[in-house]
Amino acid sequence: MNLLEQSWYHKGHWLSLLLLPLAALYWLITWARRRLYRLGLFRRFRLPVPVVIVGNISVGGTGKTPFTLWLCQQLLASGVKPGIISRGYGARINRPLLVSAESLAQDVGDEPLLLARRSNCPVVVCPDRVAAGRALLATHKVDIIICDDGLQHYRLARDLEIVLVDGRRGFGNGLLLPAGPLREPRARLKKVELVIVNSGEVVEANCQMQLRSSVARSLVGDTVLSPADVTLVAGIGNPDRFRLTAIQAGFNVTAQRFFADHHQFCAADFAGINTTVLMTEKDAVKCRTFARENWYYLPVDADFSTEHAAEIMNKIKSLLE
In the UniProt record, does the keyword Zinc occur (predicted)? Predict the structure, then answer.
């Protein structure tokens, strides 16, 4: 965590105070943009199938990808055909691209590639989510579109907004970028249909989600890894959560090497590591082409109580009636 990110999670930090004027300017720009869309001066585009937004109001990992995978699995099990659109963060994309299991993360983004490999749903990436949705519908018959990380993409009309919140880090110092971690004010949560807190509690939450780890798997074969001494490697928004997950799964973390979120890994990043490596599944999709036999990833899955799962699915299915 760099100095700027550290300031976000310590109230009254000198750097956050210094950046308050820029945060005020950021608030003015985002407020004006939302207002222009609300007044119809900026046009919104509606797709012919329901659109569900899965996003957050803060930067960093909140569990959107595990939740999107869970949601797609639930929809498929109930006979509904979902499709996924995403920005493709970290990749240079200027037109809609269909993501396949053989795609490269540098071409389509790490999270879309993970979604394509695990969701059994078509995935299209493009910074223009309207174009991504249209391309998806032109090539696949889907009943509903899940827009991953599209809360602030107001150009795309939506039927349901779901926001994920990290229950451990919460909203930091409560300030907007760059003085704090928030993309939008906390009051924005009052205007969405569902607020899901990941491993913790926030007063606005409707549902609580837990992330459950499964068996650590090899990047280059079918072998699995029992709890052992490992070096953690991660390029995600909240590496401390990954460290805690690994410890809870029984692994002894002897060293760690953390990079910025969406880091494009290369073999040189692992120089000097001679022990067993454990990484996230999102990072693993970027490392398979140069992985070694003692490199493993730890998958995690979203888990809900029966009551909360039913509440989520009832809201989704009401869009299809």
Answer: no
